[in-house]
Amino acid sequence: MKFSTEELIEGIRSGNKRLIAKAITLVESKKAEHRAQAEELLKQIMPFTGNSVRVGITGVPGAGKSTFIENFGRLVIANGKKVAVLAIDPSSSINKGSILGDKTRMEELAKEENAFIRPSPSSGFLGGVANTTFETMMICEAAGYDYILIETVGVGQSEVLVSDITDVFLFLKIIGGGDELQGIKRGIMEMVDVIFINKVDQDNLQKAKNTRLELKRALDFIPPKEQGWKIPVLLGSALYNEGLDEIYTQLYEFIDLKKKTGRFNEVRTQQAEKRFEYWVQEYILAMMKRSSSVEEAYVQHKKNASEMVSNPSTEAKIFVEKFLSKD
């Protein structure tokens, strides 16, 4: 059944989870007829967006992101807030399919009236998020969710891009992988706001404390992302709800600091500008490829690049200049 823009907006504003999900599906669609309605929908809900705390949560596979989000989400709800979870699943590079299993892994949170969980495929989009995660987040904000928790794909260096759409970036770490600093890229460390060493128990407590010390030393060599904020490195266990209260407090204090210094709105403005730049590139390429002659040239230059006739960046430059130069 197709819903009108007005029906979808009414459903979003009333908190109808079925219609919220329909609206997100519309925004994720690549069909031309859906894009037009999606743009109108996003335009009309704009006045109701921007009132949430946007939290990016990343970590290597096995760090316990889903367990953390489930129990942290329930803690947030216990504090009188509504929580939306946008769980990004890695897509197959072969058939673009995705398992989308996060909702089943957060079974208890899914039962909560004040929780909404939306698994979305990354569809090959880098940066740990899907290309419409920002727009999906706006729909959840318009629906009145106070906290938006974005669980990233968790595949490494590209995760830093999630910081471009969130207010606070939480990094989950586990111990026992050999060199505790191995694999922690400088890019992530420069973007992180809070670090949580997960799966800590009595058997590995001393190792966890050593890891915390190493991380703090590493952070001393990285310029602070926010003046006046010393990145906390916390220990705990998401499975047993240990350390989650402290994280909730730290997130509140971090957002409060950003608002007092004016950085909160400043950063959000910068993020909106980056989204604008991203979509300009997307629409330019889409419009250029509508022309058969441009499409033929695109295919030819792409073939030259794939066969290494010349450097891929050179082929891209030639193609763009051919159609966008003043001549």
Question: Please, could you describe this protein's structure?
Answer:
Helix content is 49%, strand content 12%. The chain has 13 helices and seven strands. The protein has a seven-stranded parallel beta sheet, with helices on both faces. Helix 9 links the parallel strand 6 and strand 7. It is globular, with a radius of gyration of 21 Å.
Uncertain runs: 91-101, 122-130
Q: What percentage of amino acids are in beta strands?
A: 5-15%
> What summary fits the major beta sheet?
7 strands, parallel
Overall geometry comes to globular
Overall pLDDT level? 85
Report helical residue fraction.
40-55%
Q: Rounded to an integer, what's the Rg over CA atoms?
A: 21 Å
How do the helices and strands follow one another from N- to C-terminus? HHHEHEHHEHEEHEHEHHHH
In short:
This protein has 327 residues and is of the alpha/beta class. The chain is built from 13 helices and seven strands. The protein has helices spanning 5-14, 17-28, 32-45, 65-78, 102-105, 107-110, 133-142, 186-191, 205-219, 244-261, 263-288, 292-306, 312-324; strands spanning 53-58, 83-89, 115-121, 147-151, 168-173, 194-197, 233-235.
